[in-house]
Design brief:
Strand order of the largest sheet: 1-2-3
Shape: elongated
Domain Integrase catalytic: 1-151
Number of domains: 2
InterPro entries: Integrase_cat-core, RNaseH-like_sf, RNaseH_sf, SH3_Tf2-1
Structural class: alpha+beta
Helix content: 25-40%
GO biological process, one term: DNA integration
Distance between the termini: 45 Å
Strand content: 15-25%
Largest sheet: 3 strands, antiparallel
CATH superfamily of the largest domain: Ribonuclease H-like superfamily/Ribonuclease H
Order of helices and strands: EEEHEHEHHHEE
CATH class of the largest domain: Alpha Beta
Protein name: Integrase catalytic domain-containing protein
GO molecular function, one term: nucleic acid binding
CATH topology of the largest domain: Nucleotidyltransferase, domain 5
Number of helices: 5
CATH architecture of the largest domain: 2-Layer Sandwich
Length: 224
């Protein structure tokens, strides 16, 4: 379990995301929360949204944040009989999986906010759906398939009966030179504190800007 904090407040005053990951199936749940929420609020959310779906877990790794202090740990230890381990900063085996998931989640949020506008918490349910239906290299399948034992069906892949079978792309062909003259490209930019891009700043500011036309090649990996 971990928190993404410091997000732009939404219309519902959410400014954080509670990230809960199943270490076996790699499936994840993302909940929009508020910084001012108490440990009791988190405990209630856990019972309503996690316990009812997945039952009681043997162990839980908690972030050391103030939100995960006495009341929540008491719920897990005494109320549910779950062993609680506190994460250690910069310990890759304990917090690495959560950090990778958070990075992916932030990228997906950023893309949705730029493309579809609106508050980021409006997009969170479908982002969770897309994350869990995406191939995970450590288990060689999607978390959804690992969790439910079958592939997920989703609206993009539905066809009316008789219109033909679903066609899956077997491979993606890449050219030797990924960038050609007259191509239009985006430029990757580093986040800058206080700088607003596309109406967003901070964690949801875009990582790429553009697009720009390639005029000529000036080196092996340099273009004008």
């Amino acid at each position: 379990m971990d928190l993404i904090m410091g997000l732009p407040p939404t219309r519902r005053q959410h400014d954080s995301i509670w990230v809960i990951i199943n270490r076996v199936s790699k499936s994840a749940h993302f909940f929009a929360v508020k910084t001012r929420d108490s440990a009791k609020d988190y405990a209630k959310l856990y019972i309503n949204e996690i316990l009812r779906l997945h039952g009681v877990t043997f162990t839980i790794i908690l972030d050391r944040g103030a939100q995960f202090t006495y009341h929540l740990r008491k719920l897990f230890k005494k109320g549910l009989g779950t062993q609680v381990n506190l994460s250690i900063a910069f310990h890759p085996q304990m917090d690495g999986q959560a950090e990778r998931t958070i990075q992916t989640l932030e990228d997906m949020l950023r893309a949705c906010v730029i493309e579809f506008k609106g508050s980021w918490d409006d997009h969170l349910p479908l982002i969770e759906f897309a994350y869990n239906d995406n191939y995970h290299p450590s288990i060689k399948i999607a978390p959804y398939e690992e969790l439910y034992g079958r592939r997920c069906r989703y609206p993009v892949c539905w066809f009316e009966e008789g219109e033909g079978a679903l066609i899956w792309l077997d491979s993606v062909h890449e050219t030797i030179d990924k960038v050609q003259l007259d191509d239009w490209v985006f430029l990757k930019v580093s986040p800058m504190k206080g700088v607003m891009r596309f109406g967003k700043k901070g964690k949801l500011s875009p990582r790429y800007v553009g697009y720009y036309r390639i005029l000529k090649r000036v080196g092996k990996v340099a273009y004008e």
